[in-house]
Amino acid sequence: MHLLAFGLNHHTAPLSIREKLAFPAETLPRALESLLASQAAREAAIVSTCNRTEIYCSSPDPHAALDWLCQFHGLNRTELEPYLYRLEASQAARHAFRVASGLDSMVLGETQILGQLKDAVRSAEHAGTLGTLLNGLFQRTFAVAKEVRSNTAVGSSSVSMSAAAVKLAEQIFPSIAELNVLFVGAGEMIELVATHFAARNPSCITVANRTLERGQRLAEQFGGNAVTLAELPETLARYDVVVTSTASQLPIIGKGMVERAIKARRHRPMFMLDLAVPRDVELEVGKLDDVFLYSVDDIAGIVEVGKEARQSAAEEAETIIQTRVAEFTDWLKKRETVPLIRALRDEADRARRHALEGAMKQLARGDAPEKVLEALSVQLTNKLMHPPTQALSSGSGAEHDAQVQTIARLYRLHPES
């Protein structure tokens, strides 16, 4: 079994590729079960966010695990190869530690990814695909993230994506207070963005969601109202700002819908921010006049604010991570010896049982207990000493010298020269 992490992120792949490998939350249990059923992995956890899709697994064949990913999404491996990374053992651990600490995020030091990692681990636990190896990895991952947050300033002065959304809108409109704002979806990302917009006291806040009840719960937090997704075609024209983040696998706002909305608005500008992966808004919408459409990748420049100050803290974090990776690698090496230790104990136990059976037969025949115990001790001694004695009597040169040193160390012997 090999510890393996593979996938792609905003560093290696554009949004058009990332959205093809996204795993909606409702598909995760089926995907995890499918991966283990394919025998490409013994343990697995899947992290899927707007910026990354990564699979952490214990796999006998890294190529088979990668093939499963391509097959699950119906994609050609050659199409994805240029964008994928594959990390094993210590490199996989280092990557997980950096991701959880916010060092691999679009926003250096952001904290949302840690919650997303924990969600991924909970999903794997519920699906029964998290074993000793990955559990060990992720428990250390969360501990490292806490240590980095506690002992460095890597998260200070960071501009979150949700705050960047407001800054971007303010570049187009002079005042958020005069705008009608529509949020499409009712998940964590929308809640974060809505919190930042609500702080600017917009004229109106509306939440559009597939289920009206959930949309209403979120809208009530900000004194807004809710509509269903089915009402979007009739209501879209009312809004100056539209922020979307749903788990839909297909766009829910098409070019035709927006064209009609712009016409009804008499070409007043509309700001649209699509934070979903896959995208909620058809790409062609961005070509329309009076529409300012931005994707999750487009706000990367805004979130660079304060990055230089956090970069120094990131170097401190890397030092912490380097130390913890070394400790994790040591734990992995010790785990590799577990089968050998088990086999050694099994062999010793077989010798014990064999000698005990002989001793019991001698006692049953009426042999003196003292003689039986003496014979038993001699038999066990000879049995256990045979392998090292044979090793010392064989071999030559450097190999023999190495065997001598190893046995002397194992048995804590210091023979006089």
Automatic annotation (TrEMBL):
<feature type="active site" description="Nucleophile">
    <location>
        <position position="50"/>
    </location>
</feature>
<feature type="domain" description="Tetrapyrrole biosynthesis glutamyl-tRNA reductase dimerisation">
    <location>
        <begin position="316"/>
        <end position="413"/>
    </location>
</feature>
<feature type="binding site">
    <location>
        <begin position="49"/>
        <end position="52"/>
    </location>
    <ligand>
        <name>substrate</name>
    </ligand>
</feature>
<keyword id="KW-0521">NADP</keyword>
<dbReference type="InterPro" id="IPR036453">
    <property type="entry name" value="GluRdtase_dimer_dom_sf"/>
</dbReference>
<dbReference type="InterPro" id="IPR015896">
    <property type="entry name" value="4pyrrol_synth_GluRdtase_dimer"/>
</dbReference>
<dbReference type="InterPro" id="IPR000343">
    <property type="entry name" value="4pyrrol_synth_GluRdtase"/>
</dbReference>
<comment type="similarity">
    <text>Belongs to the glutamyl-tRNA reductase family.</text>
</comment>
<comment type="subunit">
    <text>Homodimer.</text>
</comment>
<keyword id="KW-0560">Oxidoreductase</keyword>
<feature type="binding site">
    <location>
        <position position="116"/>
    </location>
    <ligand>
        <name>substrate</name>
    </ligand>
</feature>
<feature type="binding site">
    <location>
        <position position="105"/>
    </location>
    <ligand>
        <name>substrate</name>
    </ligand>
</feature>
<dbReference type="InterPro" id="IPR018214">
    <property type="entry name" value="GluRdtase_CS"/>
</dbReference>
<comment type="function">
    <text>Catalyzes the NADPH-dependent reduction of glutamyl-tRNA(Glu) to glutamate 1-semialdehyde (GSA).</text>
</comment>
<dbReference type="InterPro" id="IPR036343">
    <property type="entry name" value="GluRdtase_N_sf"/>
</dbReference>
<dbReference type="InterPro" id="IPR015895">
    <property type="entry name" value="4pyrrol_synth_GluRdtase_N"/>
</dbReference>
<dbReference type="Pfam" id="PF01488">
    <property type="entry name" value="Shikimate_DH"/>
</dbReference>
<dbReference type="Pfam" id="PF05201">
    <property type="entry name" value="GlutR_N"/>
</dbReference>
<feature type="site" description="Important for activity">
    <location>
        <position position="95"/>
    </location>
</feature>
<feature type="domain" description="Quinate/shikimate 5-dehydrogenase/glutamyl-tRNA reductase">
    <location>
        <begin position="167"/>
        <end position="301"/>
    </location>
</feature>
<feature type="domain" description="Glutamyl-tRNA reductase N-terminal">
    <location>
        <begin position="7"/>
        <end position="152"/>
    </location>
</feature>
<comment type="pathway">
    <text>Porphyrin-containing compound metabolism; protoporphyrin-IX biosynthesis; 5-aminolevulinate from L-glutamyl-tRNA(Glu): step 1/2.</text>
</comment>
<dbReference type="InterPro" id="IPR036291">
    <property type="entry name" value="NAD(P)-bd_dom_sf"/>
</dbReference>
<dbReference type="Pfam" id="PF00745">
    <property type="entry name" value="GlutR_dimer"/>
</dbReference>
<dbReference type="GO" id="GO:0008883">
    <property type="term" value="F:glutamyl-tRNA reductase activity"/>
</dbReference>
<protein>
    <recommendedName>
        <fullName>Glutamyl-tRNA reductase</fullName>
        <ecNumber>1.2.1.70</ecNumber>
    </recommendedName>
</protein>
<feature type="binding site">
    <location>
        <begin position="110"/>
        <end position="112"/>
    </location>
    <ligand>
        <name>substrate</name>
    </ligand>
</feature>
<keyword id="KW-0627">Porphyrin biosynthesis</keyword>
<feature type="binding site">
    <location>
        <begin position="185"/>
        <end position="190"/>
    </location>
    <ligand>
        <name>NADP(+)</name>
    </ligand>
</feature>
<dbReference type="InterPro" id="IPR006151">
    <property type="entry name" value="Shikm_DH/Glu-tRNA_Rdtase"/>
</dbReference>
